[in-house]
Design goal:
four-stranded parallel sheet; 6 strands; 37% helix; elongated
């Protein structure tokens, strides 16, 4: 039944001469698929001062992946280069400084090693942010390439001033 009505409507459009306008309107709605050459990558600075680790990491992962852009394409690196500063001033809620574990394995029998968040933070304050963001990226070659666009610094100074990065306030980003 539905096909009969569609054919009737097309005949009415042909008879009235409005088919040309209808075809032009449908052609204007094209899906944009980005590729390596058409992607507009920017440099952005994110301040981690006073931010919760998980919320910061999820917003940074969105910026790295490019999901905030209208031409997001899942299989292309269309995200921005993200610089995270003040990683020493990150916050963890509750008792996560003592209870959160970072587990690694040496490759030998009985070689499982773990550090809590405070020990990992004292060893390298950047690694906590890097590990949490990496866990939110795809687990494939694309995720590895996206992770290379993340640069974390413990203080407010960074070495990417020549790229003229724009500062983003994460409290205003969805």
């Amino acid at each position: 039944m539905l096909i009969k009505y569609i054919i009737v409507d097309l005949h009415a459009l042909l008879r009235d001469g409005n088919l040309k306008n209808w075809i032009l309107d449908t052609i204007s709605f094209k899906t944009i698929s980005a590729n390596k050459n058409t992607v507009d990558k920017k440099w952005v600075v994110v301040d981690a001062d006073g931010q919760n680790l998980g919320r910061l990491a999820s917003k940074v992962a969105i910026l790295l992946r490019g999901k905030h852009k209208p031409n997001f394409t899942p299989h292309v690196d269309c995200g921005d280069n993200v610089i995270v500063i003040n990683s020493k001033k990150i916050k963890l809620s509750g008792n996560k400084w003592e209870q959160k574990k970072y587990i690694r394995y040496t490759g030998y029998p009985g070689g499982q090693r773990s550090l809590n968040a405070l020990e990992q933070f004292e060893k390298n304050p950047n690694s906590i942010i890097e590990k949490s963001v990496k866990g939110m990226l795809p687990k494939n070659k694309l995720g590895a390439n996206l992770f290379r666009n993340l640069h974390v610094f413990p203080d407010s100074e960074h070495k990417f001033e020549a790229q003229k990065p724009t500062k983003i306030d994460l409290n205003k980003v969805n």
